[in-house]
Amino acid sequence: MAKxxxxxxxxxxxxxxxxxxxxxxxxxxWMPILTRxxxxxxxxxxxxxxxxxYDGGEDGSPLIALKAALSASITGKxxxxxxxxxxxxxxxxxxxIDDLALPPNFVVHVEGGRHYEPAFEDFRxxxxxxxxxxxxxxxxxxxxxxxxxxxxxxxYILGQPKCEVLVTFMYEEINRFVGHPDQTANFDSFFGxxxxxxxxxxxxARDRNRFLHDLYLRQLKDAAGARYVRSFQMxxxxxxxxxxxxxxxxxxxxxKKMKEAMWAVxxxxxxxxxxxxxxxxxxxxxxxxRYEDLCRQILTRFAGRVATVGEIxxxxxxxxxxxxxxxxxQVLRPLELADPPRIAVPNAPPGRRPxxxxxxxxxxxxx
Length: 367
Fold this sequence. Notes:
By secondary structure, this protein is of the alpha/beta class. It contains 12 helices and 12 strands. Helix 1 runs parallel beside helix 2. The longest helix has 23 residues, at 14-36. The chain is globular, with a radius of gyration of 22 Å.
């Protein structure tokens, strides 16, 4: 099945380096936000934790999460669950955590030699009871393939208030084995339904890719109830999809911070990645965004209408690949200052300078 490493430690590939940079940036924003929200407890769950380090000395996802929490100076209770099926890797991770000298408000569970599903169930019952709610939780679900990552857990986590998931969807491996008769039950579990069977007969690789991607995205929205879902396509230098990252949340603030983390990652030529949520709006992440794409999307959405700056920002965050920092100076300002102008600001407040859009209540007419 998926080519999982056989050794306790292994080399960090460029895609994983980018994925961990995204994770680090996001957690550095997520943890302080929740702490300021007054929550007594927050939780971080890593379903496929690994040994904690790569053979070049780079931090793995568990140490990234712990160090992000340490740098945030959080005073509330933090629960960490790290699940690692291979006992030698779990032992290696425990030793690294012991060396960190964590404060008493950090409660860490390393579940070695166990699968993600039973370890998660025990963790949930131990801390919250059989019917208790999760605290605000971020779950990083990063399998090497598709087994051991049931959609039932994703659905349960997203069904709780202020809980989010980041899932690695290993498309290359899934595509290779999606029609294998021995994997039927595993794919039913991973997708949370049997609709993946419809993709087996699709002859075109691109069509099958999009079908399986869209099915998982739809499951996150419809079956798990996530209000906001975005997917990020990681490709090798030949342009072939290695995997997708799916981020699902009920929080517009969380979505904003995840986008900021994605746009901050520099591919450096070793790989490419893009926002693949909408095939009609495929946006490649790079140092200089294609603002003309965002401009086109905004004009299409609001043509002939009057909208507030706040409404435009909500659209940019929820329905495009771009950040809230991309649309004012790079899109709205040129539209207003064009000759002739393409937008107008009716009833502008006294003293407003053209090309500025500070107030979310400022009304804009698209001409």
